[in-house]
Amino acid sequence: MLVNAPVLQEFINGAKTAIVAAGAYARVGEIPLWLVILAGFIGMVKLDWAFWLAGRRWADGVLRLFAQDERQLRRIDRLKRIPKWALFLMTLIAPCPGVPQPLVYIVAGWTGMRLRLFLAANFLGSMLFTLLWALLGYQLGRAAVDVLKVIDKYSLWVTIALIVGVFVFAFVKENRKAKQKG
C-alpha cells in the first residue's frame, strides 16, 4: 500500500512510514502536499479519544485488580497525581517514536485530564509530527519513491520465500524429533 495508496494507508492507520512515503510522492508531483498532511493528521488522531475514554472508565479498576500489595497501591495513587502540565506535555509528545501512545492516552483519561485539554494537546502534537514526517518525505523525494518501488517489486517474493522457509524449518524440526523417538 505504501506504493499504490500511501494516502489511504496514512488515513487508515496514521503510520509514520506512510506519511513519509506520501510526502515523497508529493515531492515528485503525484499527490498534493496538503492531502498528505490532512490524511496523516486524521489518521493519527481519529481514535485517540477512545484510549482517553478507556482510561477514564476502566483504568482505575484494572490497575487495582493487578496491584499485588499496599506498596503498589500507593504507587498507583501517586501516579494519579501527575501535574496537569506534565500530562499536557506527555500528550503533546506522544506521537514521537518510542513513546507508547495508547498508554499515555489511557493515563491522561485515568488521571482526570479534561477531554478538551487532551484533544488540544493531542491535535497540536499530532499536527506537529505529521508536518515533520511529511516534510521529511518531501525532502527525500525521488530517492524515497525509487526505494519504495524496488521494495514493492520484490516484497511479494520475499514474503513467499519467508513463509516457505518457516514451513520447511518446522517440517525438518518435527521430522528430526520423530526420528529420535522412533
TrEMBL record:
Coiled-coil parts of chain: none
Q: Which residues cross the membrane?
A: 33-54, 85-108, 115-134, 154-172
Question: Where's the VTT domain?
Answer: 19-139
What keywords were assigned to this record?
Answer: Cell membrane, Membrane, Transmembrane, Transmembrane helix
Q: Where in the cell is it found?
A: Cell membrane
Q: Which InterPro entries match?
A: DedA_domain, VTT_dom
Pfam families, A to Z: VTT_dom
How is this protein situated with respect to the membrane?
Answer: Multi-pass membrane protein
Main subcellular localisation:
membrane
Q: Which family does it belong to?
A: Belongs to the DedA family.
Q: What is this protein called?
A: VTT domain-containing protein
UniProt source species: Brevibacterium metallidurans
